[in-house]
């Protein structure tokens, strides 16, 4: 049902743009429109046809995962087979993804030289930005796994562990509890390294008196979740408590304003103004948040230049932070599902600064 609804929406967009066919090659869009999870393949979707081209390794899998599609085994180079099929289909106008390589496009044009092409990224993005019930369920499962992993890691962290050891423990707990994978480069950054917004785990040893920033994400059936909390080892200093309090206040104020009809850039400014007025405006250099789904970063993005209006069904993160080079940093991140009435916060973990016993 969900796949058919997505195809129907795509065909409506095709009709608006007078497209004869859409070519889908990227892994995330292939999965979104067909449920096919193999690593090689292409979708050709027209008004009357739905073709999935793949090689011998994935033919049986494709038939099982994408029963709505005509599965065709290609021999040789995928791009050349796509070009040959486009010629057979006698189409003139094709929609393609911006990510399609020059080489792939060149091979297509060898077979279908008269084909006119336009980008479908905006159209596909408009479809994918509103999540259906199936997608939301998977994302919420991922967040629940993150919550569980965070609860566990609070009892595991202690001085003397390395960032990598903390990261490996988080990964183990997440996979043990249902994650099929984790987002690339979990951020596990301690001490002065916590000022790195995307500081991947190293062999640095965690010490008493330091922040440990953890930005993690579980993958469930291809869908990402995103979660950040910052903890302190031993009693925090006044400055640590102050910085944490500012970030928490900025996030809570942003949450008060979020809901359908709200503009991304205006929400970003709500949180940013609080951090700026506290004197740390230059130390909050990324967006307030972003959408996610089959990719960890999707549109819209809550930044000053994004005028997107939030709609029910969108899934976004809210993650303000302050980063002080040579000292450390704090980020707090929740994941929200926009609803008709406002939003549902899928992240259940406390926002209070968690103090890890240093003994």
UniProtKB/TrEMBL annotation:
List, for all copies, the residue spans of the domain called Peptidase M24: 137-340
* UniProt-listed SUPFAM superfamilies: Creatinase/aminopeptidase (SSF55920), Creatinase/prolidase N-terminal domain (SSF53092)
Q: Name the source's superkingdom.
A: Bacteria
Domain (Creatinase N-terminal) spans 6-130
* Keywords for this protein: Hydrolase, Metal-binding
**Pfam families per the record?**
Creatinase_N, Peptidase_M24
Which PROSITE patterns does this UniProt record tie to the protein?
A: PROLINE_PEPTIDASE
Molecular function GO labels: aminopeptidase activity; metal ion binding; metalloexopeptidase activity
InterPro entries of this UniProt entry?
Answer: Creatin/AminoP/Spt16_N (IPR029149), Creatinase/aminopeptidase-like (IPR036005), Creatinase_N (IPR000587), Pept_M24 (IPR000994), Pept_M24_MAP (IPR001714), Peptidase_M24B (IPR050659), Peptidase_M24B_aminopep-P_CS (IPR001131)
Q: What is this protein called?
A: Xaa-Pro dipeptidase
Please name the source species: Halalkalibacter okhensis
